[in-house]
Fold this protein.
Amino acid sequence: MRVQLLAGQYVALLVPWFGADWKKLMIRKCLFPAAGYGTRFLPATKAMPKEMLPIVDKPLIQYAVEEAYSAGLQHMAMVTGRGKRALEDHFDTSYELEQQIRGTAKERALDSTRQLIDTCSFAYTRQVEMKGLGHAILSGRPLIGDEAFAVVLADDLCLNPDGDPVLAQMVALYKQYRCSIVAIQEVPREDTRKYGVIAGEQIHEGIYRVDTMVEKPSPEDAPSNLAIIGRYILTPDIFDLIADTPPGTGGEIQVTDALMRQAQAGCVLAYKFKGLRFDCGSVEGFVEATNFCFKQR
């Protein structure tokens, strides 16, 4: 991806992999890395995927898939691991259960899940070893192919009661710029060690062209307080960049390292999204999200 400055605006130039296949100009697929152990929620996650933890009466993974569907994506690709069979079962027909509740008021409780099953396709692969988010995304390459795609981390619950879902906002931005995009939010300086952190030039309100991207910096080394959260749109060249990225601390392959190389070669945008984000990978964020959703209902 190359970026050219025209009339005071950054305009992404289409690269050869688009070719004549205009389908590649659209975001059709969403990847859900869901192989982690969820150790912060033990013992609840000893036998249950953390992505199946319910916010009120709906699991986190369904919130994530609904967000992708609302953004116009219909092909859902999940990278799972051992003990994650419940994710597949959730997006499948349960004949015994549905027969049991047929004709009762409880039947309507499955309407939202049935809609996703009827309108979306679901594909699954396993991340055999836990080697970081970059490795998880690379594990999903056979499900994505040679096209741009979204990535949603289900334990980052994003809600925007007064407007478009966060991923829909990013898809609209991709249609304009045609490059990789990461969602960001401001965090307290002392929390930068928990996130990938970006710095760059603001080219429009809430939109930054990334110059620097650091994974989990200490507060004194952080280039800003703009932290990457679990929403990405990635162009397909990211796969080769991840494959060529050496493991970092703890033997993990970080997607931020690959994105930094992509930014140096062309363009990566960071988008300060509109809406709320709850870190449901933490107990505090999970409880906050549950209380918020319950009050909304």
User: Anything to note?
Assistant: The CA atoms of residues 71 and 171 lie 7 Å apart. The first strand starts at residue 2 and ends at 6. The domain at 20-296 is CATH 3.90.550.10 (Spore Coat Polysaccharide Biosynthesis Protein SpsA; Chain A). DSSP finds ten helices and 15 strands in the chain.
